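Hi C.,

You asked whether I'd gotten around to modeling the 268-residue construct. I have! Everything is below, sequence then structure, no commentary in between.
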Amino acid sequence: MSLLGCSIPGPSVSEDEMSAKLPHQKLKLADGYDMSFLESGDPNGELVVFVHGTPGEAEAWADYLMSPPAGFHYIAIDRPGFGRSGPDDAVVSLAEQARAIAGIIRAKGGKPAALVGHSLGGPIIAQTAVDAPDLVAALIIVAGSLDPAQEDVPFIQFVGDTWPVSAVLPRAVRNANREIIALKPQLEALAPRLATINVPVTIVHGTKDDLVPFANVAFMKSHLTGVKNMGVTVIEGQNHFLPWNSKAQVLAAIAKAFSMMKATGTHP
């Protein structure tokens, strides 16, 4: 399980349903490769970008994109290194992953977006808010791994990154493994910059998360000191797979983020 990063359940909708309603699209990024994404809802509506963990792909959010609320524009990306996005190798840089998110927001008109990040998607959307604050309206961090003190990389991860083991691993697992190994020092660099984030933040985390410990919540609360408003949803007894087993709470956190944006005058 460790070698698989945050291995994910599948969406409830079938592949035929997804392909019919959510065709893959591609955007050429400034870093030189294509990023694949799924899109639904009102193109002129409130933009929400969904960012998966590691490993993962855009289809992880299919249940959300199949029925977006009226007035909303939903996009789920295949992060660089996963799904149908390039490159073939892992993109372990949080800053480069953040540039990909900024790229899709700019391509869709540049109106600030609410970002939803699960697991490693959490620090990636936080990095986006730090690096491109003009493009981010709110953060919804779902089981986010932001505390570097919680990143104790198991020995098996390093074994998986050595040849010939890495050569026989599926691309998604190989790249997830490399992201996990490279994460801690980047979180340490990001930590002092979290105080610069000043948009509403909602956090959703389960108390029985064995992959991203619940202690991450206390870390976020103590470091996101500049946010205009913060909401925390604690799900007692729940594990890491909140986008699938706690969809109602995740949707409520998104709605709460927009409510806080309006209340604090940060609604774009």
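If it helps when you're writing up: The chain is about 35% helix and 20% strand.

Thanks,
B.
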